[in-house]
Design a protein that fits this description.
Blueprint lengths: L1 E7 L5 E8 L2 E9 L5 E8 L2 E9 L5 E7 L2
Antiparallel strand pairs: 1-2, 2-3, 3-4, 4-5, 5-6
């Protein structure tokens, strides 16, 4: 069963959020900087990065796209 999962920076701001199935990352995940801006996003299948992953600058502009199998 998939459950929403959130990981926090030491200051309490959100570092990452996505879904887990047991102890395995599954589905869409996002990572954030301490200032709250999105840093990276992409999908997992059985704890493996799949599809297109996007890296963003602090203003939200796409600076890099990386493709993984599947």
């Amino acid at each position: 069963m998939k459950k929403r999962h959130i990981v926090y920076h030491k200051d309490g701001s959100i570092w990452a959020k996505g879904t887990m199935e047991g102890k395995i990352c599954e589905g869409y995940w996002e990572w954030f900087r301490r200032d709250g801006s999105k840093m990276r996003s992409g999908y997992f299948e059985k704890n493996q990065q799949v599809g297109e992953w996007v890296t963003y600058d602090k203003k939200g502009a796409v600076i890099k796209k990386t493709s993984f199998g599947k």
